[in-house]
Amino acid sequence: MSKKMKLPKQTLLVCTGKKCGSKGGYTHYKNLRGMIRKEEVKDDIQVMRLQCTGNCKMAPVVGTMPKNKWYGQADDTKVEKLFKKAIKPPKKKKTD
Hints:
Blueprint: E1 10-15, H1 18-39, E2 45-50, E3 62-65, E4 69-71, H2 76-87
Parallel strand pairs: 1-2
Antiparallel strand pairs: 1-3, 3-4
Helix pairs in contact: 1-2
């Protein structure tokens, strides 16, 4: 009997390669993990490290999935805003 794999609704991707990691990527990764624990949204959001996105000139780089949006030169404020946006419940569509 196989178990069904639990997939989060969103994934935050943080580059922790050589350049991104030295410019804050690794710190962003650790901070996001802490925010997920604090807000208790482990089932809804996951954070993953990437070795290199190939966008070293824009270091550090952070992305969101499934929207496939990427942000370069991400500072602490931008990362916190991305997290808050990720945990916000989706807007409900109006039905006529």
